[in-house]
Amino acid sequence: MRNVVIGISTMLERVRRFISNPMQQVSAVVATRDFLLRLTNTKESPRVPGEIRREARALLRHFPIASELRPVLEKGLGVKKS
Description:
mainly alpha
């Protein structure tokens, strides 16, 4: 599992270089939360293995809901409201 985490960290660093502004970063984090939610839904993703579903649920356990998450990220990343 540790190797997977290290691999994901490396991949995220590569992807992060292509994210051009803080608003895109905010959107990416919110979209990640939505993706994890879809992974936990057996009707939406019926072929996802149980271990992946459990991991997604564990990650979501303390993940704030989108309406709480977005303002915190925008403030932390210095996103200016237009």
